[in-house]
Amino acid sequence: MQLRPKTQLQDGKYEIVEKIGQGGFGIVYRAYHQGLQCDVCIKEFFFRDLCERVENSTQVSIISKSDEKIKLVDSLRKKFVKEAQRLAKFRNQNIIQVMDNFEENNTAYFVMEYLEGGSLEDLIELMGTFDEPKTKRIIMPILDALEAVHEKGLLHLDIKPANIMLRKDQSPVLIDFGISKYMEIGGGYTTTAPIGISKGYAPLEQYGGNVADFSPATDIYSLCATIYKMVTGITPPEPLQILGSRLKSPIEIIPKISFDFSEIVKNGMSVRANERPQSVSQIKDLLNRQQKQITIEQTKTNEEIIVSSNFTKPMAKSQDGTKKFLIFLIVSVLVFLLFRYTNLWKIDELFGIPGDIAVGLTFGSIAGYGPTN
Ligand SMILES: Nc1ncnc2c1ncn2[C@@H]1O[C@H](COP(=O)(O)OP(=O)(O)O)[C@@H](O)[C@H]1O
Ligand SMILES: [Mg+2]
After folding, report:
1. Residue 297 falls within a domain, yes or no?
2. Nearest C-alpha to atom 22 of ligand 1 is from which residue?
């Protein structure tokens, strides 16, 4: 079904290395850019339900002879090209960069930067869970990317760990602006193409499939569900399951994450869209404010440590005094016993009193309380 390794595209400009993914609308390849001598990623339009590859050929053909179906494939291919053109207009380092597009083999292609770091989904699989700072390091740049998408009046509609990829330097990149997912806000999107549902990441309104119900809050749900997966390692339940019972807060699963962060994620996953933050800038503000709060608390804790360490000085002084007094007492007793029992000094004779009483008196005088005489 896919192009074979070493297949040349654009008269040898690109050479297919391997297939790396396939969804409902396209096949993704790693390819080699002969001119630039580097890997690139090529996405080929291939509507799985209605396309096939002519045997022993690179050509794509439409399975059906029905005019309606041929028209559908044609319109989806046009949208595929349009989306690539739209994507190419973004100059955002956290949105996948489109480098080229062309038509060949009776289908359409676009060429993207090849991301070597794998997907966030792979990374979660590897790491289990992410702590709060690491989660934010990945999510904050993705929020910037999403804000840029919404500013252009578009929605992504399929944010999930598999659609966040990493560069070699671990910087995150939002990918997969597929035709079923990339819609104009409030725009008249009229295709019979099924709208993809990514279980655990799609909010309730996406199950309804009514484009008029979609808004930036739709993407915000998916983004918070992605954070949920990162911090807990658990794929969130579907919205209907949440309605039936309730969503466990991230903090109930991982107690070491902060309460405020957990609440931001949980609110972002409200089943009712109007109960979520309504814009990316709102959720960014919440996360930034919460981060500031953490920093203030950390500074306070550090100050407390400094203050309490200052208190240890007088305490140490008094402890030191007690220690000196005890040493003094022990030395006194030892000196006295030495004198008393080695007869170095006939103490009873000196005072002219019975020995037993002299012991008490001398001990007292050594300690500073003896007869002043
Ligand atoms: N630019 C890229 N660099 C490297 N791998 C990529 C790139 N784009 C996509 N992929 C890989 O191909 C898979 C499918 O691509 P995606 O655009 O998400 O299409 P689909 O609609 O099939 O999910 C991704 O999960 C990822 O593994
Ligand atoms: Mg994808």
Report:
1. no
2. 23
Residue 96 lies in a domain: yes
Which one of 252, 286, 320 terminates a domain? 286
Which residue's alpha carbon is nearest to atom 9 within ligand 1?
28
The parent domain of residue 139 ranges over 120-286
Decide which of 113, 142, 161 is a domain's last residue: 113
Asked if 192 and 261 sit in the same domain, the reply is: yes
The sheet that has 26-33: what strands, in order across it?
Answer: 8-9, 14-22, 26-33, 38-45, 107-113, 98-104
In which element (H, E) is residue 175 found? none
What distance lies between CA 354 and its chain's CA centroid?
Answer: 86
**Number of domains the chain is built from:** 2
Digit-by-digit pLDDT tens for the chain (373 residues) are: 899 999 999 999 999 999 999 988 899 999 999 999 999 999 999 999 999 998 889 999 999 888 999 999 998 999 889 878 888 889 999 999 999 999 999 999 999 999 999 999 999 999 999 999 999 999 999 999 999 999 988 888 899 999 999 999 999 999 998 754 555 554 544 443 445 789 999 999 999 888 888 999 999 999 999 999 999 999 999 999 999 999 999 999 999 999 999 999 999 999 999 999 999 999 999 999 988 888 887 787 777 766 665 554 444 455 667 788 888 888 888 887 887 777 655 555 545 545 454 444 344 443 444 443 3
Query: Is residue 61 exposed (0-12), middle (13-18) or buried (19+ Cβ within 10 Å)?
Result: middle
Q: Which residue among 2, 19, 20 is best mutated to probe the pocket of ligand 1, counting the most ligand atoms within 8 A of its Cβ?
A: 20
Q: Residue 358 in 3-state DSSP?
A: helix
Q: Quick one: 99 and 144 in the same domain?
A: no
